[in-house]
Amino acid sequence: MLYSLENDKIKITVSDHGAELHSLTSQGENIEYLWNGNLEYWKYHAPTLFPIVGKTKDLKYRIDGEEYELPAHGLARISEFNLMEKTDNYIAFQLKYSEESLKVYPYKFSLIIAYEIKDNCVKVIYKVRNLDNKEILFSIGAHPAFMCPIVENENIEDCYLEFNRIETSSFMGVNKEAYICKKRHECLNDSNIISLSKELFKNGVLIFDDLKSDRVTIKSRKSKKSLSVEFKGFPYIGFWAPEKGAPFICLEPWFGHADYEDFNGEFKDKEGIISLEEGQEFICSYNIFIK
């Protein structure tokens, strides 16, 4: 089922399947900023990644010597959530552990995904609560896809990413199976601009783990419309678009990432894993602004 929130600046639509954002439009002009899920390129809009980000080796992982299997990006994006609360400017959904989830992810948890709108901003909130009698381990992240270019009749080559601080940074490489390589790729050298092109993503996702910036904006050299993602507190951010080219780009704040190509340890040893004690709650959020 789809639910909507709107004010005088923006309107959003959210599904209880995956608690996934399906639409983000500006009022008045009615411009769509979120990817439409066209199956030709990618069927999702803005899935949540939980309890893993990316892939584990061969889709398998070990906890206390026991082997489990999860699809890439985990359970949340393919699960039905329950509506918890809805007001004029806020909506929240919950996913709780089940007998089926315990077979592939052996922890008792509650995941709440909430959306709050204010002016031209959408705040996306994640809350993970440990309902078990032991610590639980997880990663969590966002995978929103935004129209790029935003304005019709422009090309991706007209667009660029702009960070809110000057950066000198490289991004983590990935191999053809989407596992992390030790090799890094130089990208930003005393700059805050990444020019976009179809070629940029020919080797997969660009993952940054050392940025000083906490905000990135999709901009165009031909028009003034833009979209920003503010990702304060997230240790990783990924940028991705399909290799064959598509009119969108994903701006992805993460806690965690895919396995390294040579990783063979237990889940607790995986880089980026969060440990949450019994009865405790982990909360993070990111903001989407349109202009």
From TrEMBL:
GO function terms (MF aspect): carbohydrate binding; isomerase activity
InterPro entries, sorted: Aldose_1/G6P_1-epimerase, Gal_mutarotase_sf_dom, GH-type_carb-bd, LacX
Signal peptide coordinates: none
SUPFAM superfamilies assigned: Galactose mutarotase-like (SSF74650)
Biological processes annotated in GO: carbohydrate metabolic process
Protein name: Aldose 1-epimerase
Lineage per the UniProt record: Bacteria, Bacillati, Bacillota, Clostridia, Eubacteriales
